[in-house]
Automatic annotation (TrEMBL):
It comes from Paenibacillus sedimenti. This is Alkene reductase. The lineage of its organism: Bacteria, Bacillati, Bacillota, Bacilli, Bacillales. The keyword Oxidoreductase applies. It comes from the Bacteria. Belongs to the NADH:flavin oxidoreductase/NADH oxidase family.
Amino acid sequence: MEKLWSKTKIGKMELPHRLAMAPMTRSRAQEDGTPGEEASLYYAQRASMGLIITEGAQPSDDGQGYLWSPGIYTEKHIEGWRKVTDAVHGAGGYMYIQLMHAGRMSHPDNTPHHGQPVAPSPIAPGVEMFTVTGMQDIPVPRELSKEDIQTTIADFRRAAAAAIAAGADGVEIHGANGYLINQFIGESSNTRTDEYGGSIENRARFAIEVARAIVDEIGAERTGFRISPGTPLGGIQDGEQGPELYRYLVQELAQLDLAYLHIMHLGNEELLRDIRSLWTNPLLVNRAERALEDLSADIDSGLADLVPVGVWSLANPDLVERLQKGAPLNEADPTTFFGHGSKGYTDYPTINELASQER
């Protein structure tokens, strides 16, 4: 793992190694979307990860999908996130706030305005959503008009500015995992006949316009983008043109000179190699179910510049130290991934705390 521990630069950040903390929904924000009281401790505990990419933060009321997810579009949100970024910077880390508009992956019971979810087309994802009254079918979303699309792009832009005002080092645009940007990309979720649907250029248009607006607002060196080619989350199917669409999208995003591209990778190795050749800036590759012994494989082969780590960093606030020392890892408790309270959030012990308990 020698290359894994080498220094690297992303945007304006000088990172101490090639690991990063992957974004993970934790559902512990306050009712108004302000980060919860323990969020500062949770993220600061993991500052040794170098670059922390936060859980998805919605850019508007329409953008909320899950209960107790954080927002980044009001003054209270900015104040709450400022406490988090200050804590992370004080502990020596960097933080990118992920901007996540859930689109149709929502329910009226979960949003501040209790409005119908929005999407590129009025097609329900065919899955359920957790609400305060339990699991419910996600309703058919309202199709975004062209005017709505421009309003949504402006929401992303304002959210990016709010993230910087909150002290974040940058933002990651969530274009993956079945959420709004991915819904425009997906063949099964986008049946529009205007310039935002149909051809691969049209289905990629919304993603590109969001990225351009954010780059114009905060700078390319502060902007990352996440994609998930071939990932069927939220009922998304890319269709036969999917790989070609992602090649086109990556080429267009590369022209914006973004700080990084982040791939949630599920196994199309040919496409991954093509993306690597098209993308000359830093590439983050997050492989599902990656074995611990393979953690540095993509760094060693040159496919990736950074390796985002999810559940291992959730359960091990001192993951970097544990890996460097060959120490055993804490087991993650899936029953505490989402919801309130410190259990399974800020109470995972470090190896130093475990050693003290044994004395």
